[in-house]
Design goal:
heterodimer, A: alpha+beta, Ubiquitin-like (UB roll), two-stranded antiparallel sheet, 17% helix, 35% strand, B: 141 residues, alpha+beta, Aldehyde Oxidoreductase, domain 3, four-stranded mixed beta sheet, 4 helices
Chain lengths: 88, 141
């Protein structure tokens, strides 16, 4: 089988509220080997300075919709890591 | 449609927005900024959001309510700096009868709290601030 998918995926990570404070930034570009999941993104983030303050399985969104840890990520995806929601 | 606003939330335009001659009942819910949180005195708070997703999630919630019940729904959530007593969120659900209006209104506010990416930082009387974590009480239980 000849797979056309690239061997790596680059995702645009958004951090908010307390999580942005933990890592000292609101945006991070991550390059991961393909195939990759949301959990892989989180594992990568948790190795960055301040990243150990993220929970192992935080609430996440992929391209503006809630996503599970096992959801796959594609090249160019926007992955948001969401602290506990406090709207309302 | 914009569900998030930095301006004060006014109820009358929301009521006007769902008006129709067939309506018999309108249920409204207003969420206000409280002056206390877990025993601490709160002076004010700042709401922030993941804007594009918050708009998309609010649209999905309203569409779900309007599909599930025969209602017209209006929803606004304020972001930015809010004072005690300010309206942070407003839900209006209008229907021919009260049952659907109450049910849809309740559904929308519960789903907003559960799904919409909005955060708030409280400023306390002692000069400190903290991000509010509604799940913290459960974790400590």
């Amino acid at each position: 089988m000849t797979a056309a998918a690239p061997a790596i995926v680059t995702v645009h990570v958004l951090l908010f509220a307390s999580y942005a404070e933990h890592l000292g930034t609101e945006t991070i570009e991550l390059t991961l080997s393909s195939p990759a999941t949301v959990a892989d993104v989180i594992a990568h983030l948790r190795r960055l300075p301040g990243g150990q303050l993220l929970p192992p399985k935080p609430l996440c969104a992929r391209n503006l919709a809630h996503a599970g840890q096992d959801d796959s990520v594609s090249d160019g995806d926007e992955i948001a890591v969401l602290p506990p929601l406090a709207g309302g | 449609m914009a569900f998030l606003t930095r301006d004060p939330i006014e109820l009358p335009p929301l009521l006007t927005g769902v008006q129709s001659p067939a309506l018999g009942g309108v249920a409204t819910f207003l969420g206000l900024v409280r002056n206390h949180h877990e025993g601490r005195s709160v002076l004010r708070l700042d709401y922030s959001a993941y804007g594009p997703m918050a708009e998309a999630e609010c649209a999905r919630i309203v569409a779900e309510a309007e599909e599930r019940w025969p209602v017209a729904v209006a929803l606004r959530h304020r972001i930015g700096a809010l004072a005690i007593g300010d309206t942070a969120v407003a839900v209006v659900a209008a229907s021919a009868h009260r049952e659907a209006a109450f049910a849809a209104c309740r559904y929308v506010i519960e789903e907003v709290k559960r799904r919409v990416p909005i955060w708030k930082r409280e400023h306390y009387a002692d000069g400190t601030t903290a991000w509010v974590d509604p799940t913290a009480t459960l974790q400590h239980a």
